[in-house]
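From the shared-data thread, chain only:
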Amino acid sequence: MALGDCWKQLSWFYYQYLLVTALYMLEPWERTVFSILHRAYGRQTFISQSRCLLHFFRRACGC
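Structure, as tokens:
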């Protein structure tokens, strides 16, 4: 029963994600392309920001 409840909760979160991002209007292949591009952009942004912060703190600390 616990596995079924967990799956139901995950399905609800996924549905909320689709509603908030308006992806429910897209076809499945379009959702996949959007998700791949979104992850790639987010990953690139995170990496560049972390490198920038690392550089800043190295200069601030004199390392």
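Residues 2-61 form one domain.
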